[in-house]
Specification:
two-stranded antiparallel ribbon, alpha+beta
Length: 115
């Protein structure tokens, strides 16, 4: 029997939100189901019980499980999706060059000390 790995994150109003995140988060790791006993397809999303809902793009397809694998999406309390962080790694490119230069200096210094 296939199993699914899914996590829901809810944050309070007092939580400081990082860039690209919201108060409601859906995280899908492994969605291993692929077939149903019916001709119906699943939709992925949520609603507030008052007629307001959000359905993820690519929902209502027969291969939805492959679309969801290793995916996450953040929403605000008003059900609007957040814009993803354009730099999720958080390491600016200039800092990468500086780290490389420091690493090369450290290697050169250690070789010099060995002599």
């Amino acid at each position: 029997q296939p199993t699914n790995s899914f996590q829901l994150v809810l944050r309070g109003d007092d939580y400081v939100l990082p860039t690209g995140e919201g108060t409601i988060g859906f995280f899908y790791q492994e969605m291993n189901w692929s077939a149903t006993d019916t001709n119906d397809v699943a939709a992925t999303g949520f609603g507030d019980g008052q007629g307001n809902s959000v359905i993820l793009e690519s929902s209502l397809t027969s291969d939805l499980h492959t679309v969801l694998n290793n995916t996450y999406i953040w929403f605000n309390a008003d059900l609007t999706p957040t814009d993803p962080d354009p730099d999720p790694a958080g390491v600016p490119v200039p800092a990468s060059g500086l780290l490389l230069a420091l690493g090369l200096l450290a290697v050169a210094a250690s070789r010099r000390l060995r002599r």
